[in-house]
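## Example pair
The file below holds two records. Each record gives the amino-acid sequence first, followed by its structure token line.
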Amino acid sequence: MSKIDPITLSVLAGRMEQIADEMDATLFRAAFNPIIAEAHDASHGLYHAASGDTLVQGKSGLPIFVGVMSFAVKAVIEKAARDGDLADGDIYIFNDAHIGGTHLSDMRLVRPYFRNGKLFCYLASVGHWHDVGGAVPGNYNPAATDVFQEAFNLPPVKLARKGNINQDIIDILLRNTRLPQSAQGDLNGQLGALDLGVKRMDELLDEYGSDTIAAALESLGHRAEALMRSELTDLPDGCWEAEDFLDNDGITDEPLKIKIALEIQGDRMTLDFTDSSPQCAGPVNIALPTTVATAYVAIKHVFPLLPANAGVMRPIDVIVPEGSLLSAQFPAPTGGYTETILRMIDVVFSAFAQAAPERVVANAYGTINALSIAGKRKNGQPWVMFSFYGGGHGGSSDTDGLNHGNAPISTATIPPMEILEAAYPVMFRKWALRPDSAGPGAHRGGFGAVYEIEVLEENGAEAFLFGERGRFAPKGIAGGDEAALNKFTYEQDDSWHTPPLASKMRGIRLREGQAVRLETPGGGGYGASENRDTDAIARDVARGLVSETEADRTYGPAWREVNP
């Protein structure tokens, strides 16, 4: 470990985190699409010059990007080594999910940072663009059988050479989107964030010098590793297994298994996903970089004091055989990666619950319900409303689960109803908590939500849904019960309908005045329901969150003796 005093190290760690935070804020203010501007589906960080490992990441960005952006930077390092022409002012851009993880909507920009003519580190920006071509507006195509049906696929290429933007690349990007103005605005925001990062790094190194900052970065990696090893030694040695299922792959209506064998021995841990389902035809596959990043996110939930640094993963082995659902090979579709990584986190939590239940919560709602509603306005201009939706989080050893929260893979917020209604020809008939959706337990799960969205455009629209948990409900732990299933319905002239694949649907035609409805799951319960406080049960009933019928069925009649 390099010799740098703890106070200086703490100051420099804060300064570098602030650089990444400022980059986040710059993009959030500048982005055109609400998925970045409002939901904060983006991230920025600093990465090692030789390995591409994560050094520092902003606190406002998505946690899932901590690990995958490292793979993105590694891809650029390999590309630059092959080409032999890396220079100050170069900027690479790509969205290839098999190389950089997640899915094709996430556009990655990687910029080498030079100091006195020598490569010092990399700066990187990733943001979820509103539309990047493909068969489905918004790019969540539940029926895709390869990446070419999902979106425009861009390998790592130089957007800028020595500070000079290559307009040809921008022209290609803008020609492959339904929303070129939005894409141009988001790209400019990411370029601005990288410019700010370079400026702040110059200021930092001017003040402290390259040697001191390099020593601090080395120390942060060592300390992250030491902290992870210390956390592991506090847990019992052993091996625990857990499994859960995806509803289907959007093509064949058969469940897909995700299984983990979690082993802890001393200061090392293994997460073995060998017995998970093989690669499938539909878009719930994920690439290996995404799997490794998801393992980190799950671990960060279990050990919240861990930093966003690659050193955390040094004592951890993630085993995924080639050809697995969790290490899909190009050109397998990966557009629905969010649903698969949420199930991964669920099984990690369920396995940890057997070793140290006080460290984890029960399963959260487990689906982002990626819903696209798209059409054309009277003037012929296309519009695409893409958003994700919340649900309940799991109960814990201390308290009930969070109501209507965001997915545990991210800090992304649900775009406000007012923003969506102002930007698109839709109206929310309903946006409310969903009664009886929480998993019962000594500490119940949080409640899901009900969203009902009406189309106002006279030309009508088409709706596309990519969700999960329509067949396999979020599980409880430590004796807690499961939550309600996800439910999606859509309005037609005769009645309301449910899609045959439960949680996935493509090309639902909606007339003006017709609507879609999402009823999202709650979170699983923690602890046996017979141990729940009767005052808490009566309070939930009085507030309309739990029906009297459900309270009687789940908890028995004792709660009726309470005067809330």
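Second record, same layout:
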Amino acid sequence: MRRLAQRFHVLAVDLGGLMIKVGQFLSSRLDVLPPEITKELEGLQDEVSPVAFSAIQTAAEKELGVPLEQAFAYVDPTPLAAASLGQAHRAAPSAQDAELAGFAAAVVKIQRPGIGEIVDVDLAALRRVSRWLSRIRLVSNRVDAPALVEEFAATSMEEIDYLHEAANAERFAANFAEDPRVSVPDVMWERTTRRVLTLQDVTAIKINDVERLKAAGIDPAEVATQFANVMFDQIFVHGFFHADPHPGNIFVTPTPSEGNPLAEGGQAPHWHLTFIDFGMMGEIPETLRDGLRRVFIAAASRDGKGLVDAIQEVGVLLPSADTAELERAMTQLFARFGGMGFAELKEVDPREFRDFAKEFGDLVRSLPFQLPENFLLMLRTVSLISGVCSTLDSRFNLWDAIEPYAEQLIRDQRRPAVQDAAQQAVATVATALRLPGRLSEAVDGIEAGRIAVRTPDLDRRITALERVGRRIISAVLFTGLLVTGTLLRSDDSLVGSALIAASLIPLLHAVFPSRRGGN
């Protein structure tokens, strides 16, 4: 498998275009591919040679509709960065554009000539291969290949639409408009199209350049903490996050007093994080949030089967999945780690975590387990957060950074959890209340002769069944009222206490049934 991945790595670099993106996409699919493949593809970057400036100039002029020297006062022929789909050049806007935009230094990102046609051809080939693979039972039982390709196609089409990236940048900026910790380059809309994107040049200290940070009087450990907080705000608060926060896409921008590297009084300078490249963004839609809430409720109650059922509702498992082993693993997970808080989890021997993670990972890979792309992007993003922060501060602990958000999530989910429990109790009670009617219908049917067999022994059995049914109703009512009252008591002590008290009536009936009629 490793040799296969290595050959694909070489092929992707040779073909360029979309194939590099395919490799990068596959490297994140830990849910459907073995680690031997994903690990090899992790290092697949946009390892491409830049396009000759004359070709880039022609493509830009065709897209903008004017000569490049008219669109910009100056464009540096040497690319700032070359990627598989496009490349970036530093530029100076014209005096008029600079006045309108409010900045005089820009970076213009231009798509490679013909990349649209290359993407169309590559996607058509991938779709054909996926349809062929879907006819192989061994593959179709494990992976929904056509769905995987369509997911990748949607992401790819967004990446080559620079208007979409510009809109992402403005949406991201709006989320942090009142937050001094974050800045985003402004978009020069006058020089932006689907294939050309012009942004404010915000180049500063790369976030992982520890030596330059220290030279500027900035504590790398503080940068790690702030970066983690900002990223988790994106995920947990805004639900819209930068899905490719590698060091090349985040700068630390110092804002010292009077241009001095150190602020007044010898204190560390003010600084903020500057994000660039908004082509790959993740979003947690409301449907996924609801699904994750159900997963959370099942996890909070340490219900292994309920968790597996919730995972299936989210659409993570394909219909062919045999969930018995997954339920067993979840139950084992809850039994070992379920009652631990964050502080206790930090004290667990890392080797135990690794052993369990290996066993659990092998199990997951044996199932037709296909995570939604946004969920995978979130996992990948958290992994990148951890990597960047560990580079800045070797003592950085991801638990410490995520704990406040987890606690808030628990507080936010309490009321929905209560509502879900109450709804479940009501549904159960409603089912139980329909039981006497169904029993009566059965009795009526027997009495009307629609059921042919009628004997004294059958009458006694029906009477006993009715009595058992009444006791079942009482037991269900008791459970529903008690559980609902207990959950509501923390929010409304009066209503909660009243429901708990009322549960005693059906309890007495269930324990001490009526003896009328000699029963």
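Notes on the second record: The radius of gyration is 31 Å. The longest strand covers residues 86-93.
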